Amino acid sequence: MTDTGTTSVDDAETTSEASASPTDVLRRLHPIGWVAVGFALFALIATAAGWDLLVARMPWWLWVITVATIAASAFPPVLHRIRLTIEAVSEAAGKIALVLAWFIFIIQLFNVITRYTNDWFERDILFGETTSLAWMSFAALFLVGVAYGVKNGINPRIDFWWADFSPKRKAWIDFILHTFLFLPFLIVGLRVLKPFAARSLGYNRFANDGAGEWPEGWAVWRTWETATDAGQLPQGPIQAFILVGFGLWTAQVVAEIIKTGFVINGRDELGDITDADDAPLRIE
Question: How confident is the model at residue 284 (pLDDT cuts 50, 70, 90)?
């Protein structure tokens, strides 16, 4: 969708929403809004019942996100712009992944060359350093490229069965699986990876009587775990980058939920439906 087309659609939607009755707004509420409403009600019940669960003691910012999601679901232009912004980031991540792929190729080619020419150097450690760098770059390639893969639908499917479904049925399947299985998994992953990323960069949560402390000085990499290869390159950055990769992945799944929700509501022009005849057939 071009920028001009996006602008015209958003302007038309804004005008339509301004003149719509409350009944029409409820009828056209994005499905993610109903999910957020159900989640908010469940959280209120859990809080009133005093359950010992996270949903019963949510922080204030999570309540803000929930309420904002409900409000935004009534305004398709807002959700549409959010989706386009997320997908622009995923496209940029895909370009970075391409650069990393070429970088890995060059590094591995260098590894092959130095494997037979290390005798010309005074030290025999160069091969180990480049091997570590290649593995770390490959990990970064996957982490930065997974969001791009989700956006372009290259995740595994049984396409010879999937291809016969109507766009709305596909949207329902993706919306349910992404919302109730995929997104919760990624949120749990982010919660687990946040302290892991901090520790990877040297944060000591036991220092200062449990208050936590970051390492002092400018040579912080000396506190990082090192690779097992001969070069022993620091692994702190690539370990912390796992959190970034999961963040990009989560954002793109949210964009997919927004997109499929538009299709469920019959708003195919905002869902960017791809003709099944134009899509590649994969059996995986």
Answer: very low
